[in-house]
Amino acid sequence: DADVTQTPRNRITKTGKRIMLECSQTKGHDRMYWYRQDPGLGLRLIYYSFDVKDINKGEISDGYSVSRQAQAKFSLSLESAIPNQTALYFCATSDSAVGPPYGYTFGSGTRLTVV
Amino acid sequence: AQSVTQLDSHVSVSEGTPVLLRCNYSSSYSPSLFWYVQHPNKGLQLLLKYTSAATLVKGINGFEAEFKKSETSFHLTKPSAHMSDAAEYFCVVSPRSGGSYIPTFGRGTSLIVHP
Question: Which of B105, B109, B110 to mutate: most A Cβ within 10 Å?
Answer without folding.
Answer: B105
